[in-house]
Write a structure and sequence with these properties.
The protein is α/β, with parallel strands linked by helices. It is built from seven helices and ten strands. Strands 1-10-9-6-2-3-5 form a seven-stranded parallel beta sheet, sandwiched between helices. A three-stranded antiparallel beta sheet has the order 4-8-7. Helix 7 links the parallel strand 9 and strand 10. It binds 2-phosphoglycolic acid.
């Protein structure tokens, strides 16, 4: 696992430009994208810097169990933070149908699409409780894409993102598919993430801190700003 510590002013320009370089025109890439407040400035730089998704297949990382169009939903956040800023839609966009009659079948469908050709890159954020996507503490490293009960902190995140009511459940890409990605960028910013980042990087790898599984992945880069790195 590589660790990069950047000045707060440089963090978004560097991550955004790196994503532009990762998605050159003509190359068919498959990427999984987190939403939430952490990646948003980098996505804005990507779009402003000429980034395009025309040749890219995008998989949304997770989704809250909220009605279609709810501003706190992850697909809405992805549209606001990235898709609406890009000149053209992605080559393909995979999101979760959380109103499906059988959510288990919907999760299996998503997992099958992920497995077709694997992911070239997963861009992930770090939850304040050590979660990745909605893989909450207690998650095993081979967890599939599935429905999950959300921890209180994650429900509160949804409210912070604008959800009209705090969801109790969500669906998430599981650790198994994420750990199978060719490359992972774990994005962490802000002093409020300093304590959990230190735990994730130094405490024993295990289900108490799902993000710690990334330490076993052969090509993960943790890209943090200086405030998040203050305890390291
Ligand atoms: P944040 O959320 O980027 O809004 O801090 C990250 C997460 O909880 O996964």
């Amino acid at each position: 696992m590589k660790l990069e510590i950047l000045d707060p002013d440089e963090w978004a320009p560097i991550v955004g430009a790196r994503l532009v370089a990762f998605l050159p025109a003509g190359r068919r890439r498959r990427i999984c994208l987190a939403t939430g407040s952490t990646p948003e400035p980098a996505y804005a730089v990507f779009a402003a810097g000429g980034g395009a998704l025309d040749d890219t297949e995008v998989f949304l990382l997770d989704e809250f169990m909220l009605p279609e169009g709810d501003p706190g939903r992850c697909d809405e956040m992805l549209s606001r933070a990235l898709l609406d800023l890009c000149p053209a839609p992605p080559r393909a966009l995979h999101t979760f149908d959380v109103s499906a009659t059988s959510l288990d079948a919907e999760c299996r469908r998503y997992e099958e699409r992920l497995a077709t050709r694997g992911l070239d890159l997963a861009i992930l954020g770090l939850g304040g409780n050590g979660h990745i996507g909605m893989n909450e503490p207690g998650t095993s490293a081979d967890s599939p894409t599935r429905v999950v009960e959300l921890h209180m902190a994650t429900r509160q995140n949804a409210a912070r993102y604008g959800a009209t009511s705090p969801p109790e459940r969500g669906v998430t890409v599981g650790m198994r598919s994420l750990l199978a990605a060719a490359e992972i960028w774990l994005l962490v910013t802000g002093e409020h993430k300093a304590a959990i980042l230190k735990q994730v990087l130094t405490e024993p790898v295990g289900s108490d801190l799902p993000a710690s599984y990334l330490r076993y992945h052969p090509n993960t880069t943790v890209i943090v700003d200086k405030p998040a790195a203050r305890n390291l």
